[in-house]
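note to self: dont lose this again. the chain is below, predicted strucutre after it. 583 aa total, dont forget to put it in the shared folder this time
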Amino acid sequence: MTRFLRSQVLWGVAAALLVAVPRVPLYRFVASDFLQLGILQETIERPGTPPFNLYDFSDGSVGLNRTLLASGEFPWFTDPAWKMRFFRPLSSALVALSYAGSGLNPFGYALQGLFWYVALVAALAALSRRVLARERDGSSLASYLPAVLFAFAARNLAPLSYGSARWVLVASTLGLLGVLAHLRWRQESWAAGRWLAPLALALSLLAGESGLAFAGFVVAWEVVPQRARGWWRAALPTALLVAVYLGLYLAGGYGTAGQDAYLSPADAPGAFLAAAPARASYVLGDMVLGTVSLFGVDPLEASPAVLLSTGIAAVAVLALLLVPVYRDASEERRRTLRWLVLGTAGSLVPSLAALPGSRVAIVPFVGGSILLAIALSGSWRRWRSRRSAATWAAGLLALALAGLHLVYSPYVWFAAIGPTRAYDRYLEAFHRRSGLEGIGLDDTVVFLDGSQFIHLYYEYNDRRVHGRAVPTAWRELSASGREHRYSRPDERTLDLELVGGGMFEDRFLYALRTRRRPLSAGDAVELPGLRVEILASGADGPTRLRYRFAHPLEDPRYRFYVWKDGAFAAEKPPAVGGRLSLE
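---
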C-alpha cells in the first residue's frame, strides 16, 4: 500500500482528475468541431476519405476554394490559395468513434478527452520515474513533480474543451509511450521495445504532427555524447520513420498556405523563419512564466519585442536555477539534463508552425515540466544543504515558480468554470434569439458590419450540423470592428468607408489571408451575384470598398442584417444617394 501511494503515476493521475473532471459537463462543440461533425453527417464534403479526413479543411485547390467562397463558408477576403490540410487519420477516426457512440451529445467526446489527458499524464509520470528517480522505488522529489506540473498547466484547457483540439493529447500520449519503450530497450535490453518504440511513434505521427517532437526525443537520447554504443543504429529506425512521414506528408499535399497563422516551412520558408524567434519566445515564456495561459498575453496582438522579452526572461530564469544544479549533479544526471534540453528545444520546432496560442506550448512542456521539476527540487536541496545569498535567491525564485505552477495554475482551472458556464448560457440565448430565425434556403444573407465574425462562423456551421436552413449565399461584407459608413451610389451598389482603420486590424484575420498577398487598391473579388472592389487600402488592409450586387438591393432575395444589442437585427440598405452609419 505504501509503495502504491508513493507511485508517481498515482499522484499525476490524481492531479489530472482533480482539474479535468469538473470540465467534463462543460464540454461544447466549437470552432472546427462543426466542420468535423458535418463531414461525419455527410452534409459537408472535403478532400480525402471519411472518416479519416476530418482535419482536411481545404486542399487549396481553385475549385474547392471557389465553391467555399461562393457559398460564403469562407468570407470574400479569404486568400484564393488558402489551404489547411493536416494528416491526422488516427485522430480523425477517434473523433468518428465519439460520433458513433454519442452523436451530437457532447458527453461522449468529453469522456474520451478525459481518457487521453489522464493517459498522457500517466505516461509522463512513468517517464519521469525512469529518468529522475534516484532509487529503485523512485522516491526522489523531482520524479513526482513533472506529471503534477503538467496536469495543473492551464494551457491544457483547450484540448479538453473541444474535440478538434484533442489530437494533441493523442499524439503526445502515443509519442511518450514510444520514448518510454525506446529507453527501456536501451537501458534494460528489453527486446520488445526495439519494435514497440517505432510502432508507437508511427501511431503518434498518424495522430498528428506533434509526433515529430517525440521522435526528436528518441534521436536526442542517442546523440547526446557518451549515451550508449551503437547510437546511430538505434536512432536510425526513428530517423527513417520521420523521413518517410515527411515525404508522404508533402507528397499528399498536406500543410498550409495562403495565411499567416499556420505557417508551413514548405510553403513559406521565409515567413516561417522570420516568425520563429517571436513564436519560440512566447512558447518559452508560457512554459516557464505562464505569460499566455496565466497572464493573458495575446501572442497575436503583442509586439515581437514583447514576445522576445518574455522568452529571454524565461530562459534566464530557468538557466539561473538549472546551471547550479547541473554543476552539482552526477555525470549521469548531467547527461539526462543535456538530453532533456536538446529534446525540449527540438520539440519547439513543430509548434512554431501552429496558430499562436497557449495550447501550442503543450507539447514542449512535456520536456519542459521535467526540466522545471529538476530546477525546483534542485534549488530546494541546495538551499537546505548550504545557506548563502545565492541559494536564498534561487530558493525564493523557485518558490515563486512553484506557487505559479502548483497553486495559481490549478486555481485558473476552477476560476474558468464560472465564465465558461456564463458563455454557454450566452450562446444558448443567442441561438434562441439570434435574429436569423426566418432565413430561407433561397435567401442571400448580407451582414453589413463584421464585428461578430466568430458568431457568424458558428451560426453558419451550427445550421449545417443541426439541419437548419442554410441560405444560398452567406455574405459578410466586412470583418472590421471600426465604424462603418455606407453610401449608395446606385440601386445595385454599396460603398463602404471604414473610419480610423482597415479591414485587417484584427490579427486573427491573417488566418484567412497572408500578408504576402494583400488586398490593394484596384483589386477585385468576383463571387456569384457580388463583386467586391478595393478602392483604398492602408497598412491594416482595405479602408474603402465597393460592393456591386447582381440585383437591386430591394430585391426580396436579399436579407440585410446588423449586430445590435447582442443579436442580429434586420436592416434596410440606404436609399439611392443615402447613407448609413454603423458604429
